[in-house]
Amino acid sequence: MEIIENGFIFSDQKELLQVESIHQYLSEESYWAKNIPFDTVKRSIENSLCFGIYKDNKQVGFARWITDKATFAWLCDVYIEEEFRGLGLSKKLMAFMIFHPDLQGLRRYQLATLDAHGLYEQFGFSALQNPERQMGIVVQNIYDQTPS
Question: What UniProt keywords are attached to this protein's entry (predicted)?
Fold first, then answer.
């Protein structure tokens, strides 16, 4: 699936992904995956439904869904390169992804965000109902740990 708008290409084709650029952003610029190893990023992409935004053969945005394509999808690793922010690319990416055939008919779509609540609310996301039912294991600063 691919659309072109205002010179930007939005695509779900993994062969277009620039894994080195994705790794650079996630490991150096994101707050959620600082120092993430390249092999971890590569493996996460291999096992996810991924989307990229491209301009002049450069990857300028990325997002991935962890999904079984039947009941559940978790949106993560969403970013737009700083020089391309403010152009509405996040909204266009969300609109492109939310109607993807592999994400239809699921009973639960989830994500976590520090500061983009307003964006995601425009696409139907809201605070979790019954958050006390949600549980998880969170390993803080996992990528900062050195192997023993």
Answer: Transferase
Instruction: Give dist(CA 144, CA 57) in Å, integer.
Output: 32
Residues 6+ apart with CB under 8 A from 96: 1, 3, 10, 51
Q: Give the contacts of 133 (CB within 8 A, at least 6 positions apart).
A: none
3.30.2130.10, 2.40.50.100, 3.40.630.30, 3.10.129.10: which CATH number matches 2-144?
A: 3.40.630.30
The per-residue pLDDT for range 103-140, each reduced to its tens digit, is: 999 999 999 999 999 899 999 899 988 888 888 888 88
Mark out the alpha helices in 38-105 (DSSP H runs).
38-46, 89-98
Q: Is residue 146's pLDDT more than 80? A: no
